[in-house]
Task: structure prediction
Amino acid sequence: MRIALAKILTLKPDVLLLDEPTNHLDVESIVWLEEWLADTFDGALLMTSHDRDFMNRIVTRIVEVANKTVTTYGGNYDFYERERDIRREQLLASHKRQQDMLAKEEEFIARFAARASHAAQVQSRVKKIEKIERIEIPAEERVVRFTFSEPPRSGDDVVVMDGLGKEWPLPDGSVKPVFSGVSGIIKRQSKIAVVGVNGAGKSTFLKVLAGQTEPTSGTINLGANVELGYFSQHAMEILDPKKTIFETVQEVMPLANRGVLMNLLGAFLFSGDAVDKRIENLSGGEKSRVVLATLLGRPINFLILDEPTNHLDIRSREMLLEALQSFAGTVVLVSHDRHFLRHLVDRVLEVDHGEMRVYEGNYEYYLEKSHHFAH
Ligand SMILES: Nc1ncnc2c1ncn2[C@@H]1O[C@H](COP(=O)(O)OP(=O)(O)OP(=O)(O)O)[C@@H](O)[C@H]1O
Ligand SMILES: [Mg+2]
Result:
């Protein structure tokens, strides 16, 4: 992602079109890009983004595409949210006034329709209400509703690590050391963020936790009754493009009947014929929702999530955040979404030059202690 951005930025374009530029970027890069776009770049910028903080720093106008209409708001994302709610309230109020007025007119018409003496009045009122343009209330945008089934309780020590280390073998026969000497215990119900710059080794650490790859030194042991679910950073790429959404979830839950699967998919906003769409025709966010459905539909008590918010829109992120906040199990996650981190985690593991540092506090605490950023 950083290479792709660097290529574009060095062209010094007059107009930049960016489609979710912050996906996969680490916080340092996001902050750098934020500053560059806000202070250095003097061309025009049109972008899509699901990163609230990023948008708030940069944009002066929001164009909302919803309910088959395009609406413009002059301000940043926070302004847009407030203004959208105000406009919706106003619309609801005028809709109610109009409904009351129409009801009165119709009552008049019904009462006097049979009387010759009022024929002209009835006629003109019928015409009047025919001409009135009806105020329509757009359906509330639907959001993902993740609901975890109560997971079986795991032992108090979910993961025990002792001198854990990982090196990747390289094609030229040498090795790339990623981290070493990691010891510690992941306790039940902790919510842990793994942070670090791009390439630091976050995904590697999560793969070791998830048993996707063997450690090269030390040991890792899962506690009793740990049911693990893993969302990889490239989870979407392992979906079979030719399969339908329904076939995809059916494959991971072969014992569930059609009703159960349809309910699950409904919670992830796929209903009716939509479940027969092929994976290859889905948007990025839709693919993420399919993967999350295959993961969260099962009774798991230890979630390992590698950038699960990539491609999800802001409302779906909010829902995922709320679901994870109330999740009774244990969570280890990588995310570059500062809003998400701030409101979820109670512990931060930082991977930096092969070392793993533990911050026994929330994300704000980590920012304070690590002195990485001015803000
Ligand atoms: N399968 C692999 N074989 C060889 N090297 C690898 C492999 N996977 C990762 N690496 C290397 O290990 C280092 C850590 O990669 P990793 O994917 O864990 O980083 P990350 O912190 O998740 O980065 P990002 O924020 O970009 O996702 C990188 O230098 C990467 O090039
Ligand atoms: Mg990664």
About this structure: The first helix runs from residue 2 to 9. The chain has a mean pLDDT of 89.
